[in-house]
Amino acid sequence: MAITHPQGLRPHMHAAAKATPAAIPKLGPVASRVLPGLAVIGVVYTVGSYVRSQLSHEAGTMDRIFAQQNTPEVEEARRKALQVESNGDPRNNLLNLLG
């Protein structure tokens, strides 16, 4: 003779063990193609913004450092050391594209 329990559970099983997991909503064909692309664009934009802000910060730091060193005495010593009059100014070199 079998003992029947409410909801068909044995006494040692909890009601949570019988619960079904929540179903993940299915995406339509358009959304399944668009959402990954939007995620990639969002990540690329975020990383690009971060890199741009870091480069701007570093450029400002370097500008402050060089502004302190660009005194007339330093420029005169630089001209003498690099022989700017005979060799030309390396700052105006065509290969110096980052200037």
What would the keywords be for this entry?
mainly alpha; 99 residues
Describe the structure.
The protein is mostly helical and 99 residues long. The protein contains 4 helices and no strands. It has helices at residues 15-18, 29-69, 72-82, 84-87. The longest helix is centred in the middle third of the chain and has 41 residues, at 29-69. The chain is rod-shaped, with a radius of gyration of 35 Å.
Q: Brief overview, please?
A:
The protein has 99 residues and is mainly alpha-helical. It contains 4 helices and no strands.
**Sequence stretches where pLDDT stays below 50 over 5 or more residues:** none
Q: Classify the beta-strand content into a percent band.
A: under 5%
- The N- to C-terminal Cα distance equals 93 Å
Which word captures the global form?
rod-shaped
Q: How does the helix and strand content classify structurally?
A: mainly alpha
Q: Could you tell me the number of beta strands? A: 0
Number of helices: 4
Rg, Å, rounded: 35 Å
Helix content: 55-70%
Q: What is the typical, i.e. mean, pLDDT? A: 81
Q: What pattern of helices and strands is seen along the backbone?
A: HHHH
> How can the largest sheet be summarized?
none
SSE layout and pairings?
Layout: H1 15-18, H2 29-69, H3 72-82, H4 84-87
